[in-house]
From TrEMBL:
Keywords: DNA damage, DNA repair, Metal-binding, Nucleus, Transferase, Zinc, Zinc-finger. It is found in: Nucleus. One of its GO terms (biological process) is error-prone translesion synthesis. It comes from the Eukaryota. Residues 549-576 form the C2H2-type domain. Its main location: nucleus. This is Similar to Saccharomyces cerevisiae YDR419W RAD30 DNA polymerase eta, involved in translesion synthesis during post-replication repair.
Amino acid sequence: MSQFTWKDLIQLNSDSKSYLSPLSCMAHVDVNAFFAQAEQIRCGYTRDDPIVCVQWNSIIAVSYAARKYGISRLDTIGSAMEKSGNKLIPIHTAVFRRGEDYWQYHDGCGSWNSDKSKQIPANLYKVSLDPYRRESRKIFRIFRKHSDRVEKASVDEVFLDLGKLCFQRLLTEDIISKSTENCESLGILREIFQQGEYNIDSTLPTVPEELKLLNFVGDVYNPENKPLIEDWDDVIFAIGSQLVGEMRDDIEDSLGFTTSAGIARTKYVAKLGSNFKKPDAQTVILNKYVQDFLDGESFDITSFWTFGGKIGNEICTLLKTPETGSIKFIRENWPDGPQGLHNYLNKRILELSNTNEIQTLDSSKTEALSQKLYDISRGKFLLPLNEKPIVKSMMSNKNMRKDSCCNIIHAISWIEVFSGELTARIKELEQEYSKLIVPKTVVLLATTLKKKVYRKTGHFIHNHSELTPKDFIQIGTKLMQDIDNENYGAKNSFFYPLLNLSITISNFEIFDTNKTIVDMFGNHAKILTKTTNNTKEVEGGKQEELNLFCCKFCNINFETNKEFQEHKDFHVALKLSDAMNGISEDSKNLTIGERRLLLNKKRKNFDKTPPKTNKKSKGKRGSTPGILSFFSK
DNA sequence: TACTCACAG
DNA sequence: GGCTGTGAGTA
């Protein structure tokens, strides 16, 4: 007799409820040493070549072929090369050069190269992870081809809710496997289902003998060689393992990546499963052996997702010793529900209240926490697939070396890099989803030795049909000018060199592309004329006229050429004033573009005082600067 | 809303 | 350790 009901089975077919069914089947798939594999494939190496992916002096991914030298992610490339007797094949990530808005690979270059001309100095470059995002999307697309129940958990991981696919394969598709083509009792099950001749609360028939021969793809966790298929959940897992096997094969055949997968009732256990055997493997954790798995492999609380840091350690402390953070300990000491555990945690928090051992946890969190621990320790913490929105935020960031950002010129050059990166990333997403994606918020964050300075747009509107790096450069530059004026220019206080500079865009508005551009931006154009004092309300053709004297950098319209020229002078001056004023050796450190600007400046004899601040040019033309067309108040 | 912390890969 | 992202908490 089965322990499951028809309701449990049918629930699998529901996108929103499948995870709640005792027959639910989740998978976690992880690309092995993703960055290293991506480079291996890109550069045409094989899996046996010991590739490591390098960023500056650090290794950020180690291929499985390179692990045999004992290389780990924390090694520097220098020490790793030594360990391996120079056998490693290091490949540096793609990089942007300061002042340039595109990334490039410089294969063969990197700090391990003794040839000085083949270095990639971290003060002048910024790492680009775009190539990996691109591969990640290709992989994700393959999962999506097989299933619409996919959660992208990170750049190299997905969760799958296999309930619906398993259900369909079991009950409505012809193919389960060759061994069951003639399975009469399965036919009967299907017939009952199709005729609707069942009571939803009645138990399912016993699993037919023929079905017990169903093959699993990958390894089933079963150290004591107990029977595999006995009830319907085992059948579902066998089908699930086949589905995941097919997806992983597809990924390997079409893209070349090997992956590891875990299949289990819950996301948490599936994730432990994918980590269990690597690379190129998959592990099924059957419900009836999940406790053996959790106990036998001596998992403790800190092995579980979101418990890997302080919280997990504090739980171990509350439970007295690290060993007693073990899953078995929790399950066996609180067998009758989470209430006892809840009381115990609260008691321990009180006991430890005058020590500083417990900092993150407090009694307001223990109720939910004890329920979660109670469930986790039984492999029954049910979490639905989280279908994430396209994007929530996007950051382009650079941690500076001491000479990477010593003045506003440098800062603006980095902003150009950020702008190129963000625009390219948005464009790729737009193409992938056939949407227009418009960020409403742009944040510039500068970190100095002493403080963080933060500027944010109100309501970002771009009036182009297409987003260009220029849009972000305009805004980023404006924000940077504000920050510079307030913290350096006006007060003449300590500000540079910056330790960090970043642009984060967020608050995305997403439009379907089947609308016309006018449909989408018609309203925005109105806002533009409304909120901008110095732009007259004009229609179509007349707008063109105004654009004759339009600063492309700020998108300010000027009424006369003279004003326009003055404004342009102001830009150059602003960009250059700091470099000329202070630190003369800066010029050594400038990129070609920056140096050209400097030369131009000398040639044109720009030394006479230009309009000094933004405010001045504001005042001249009225109360509102034209750049406001990009902001609301 | 602005900012910090925690966590993850 | 550097880079990118999410979510919770706090004021």
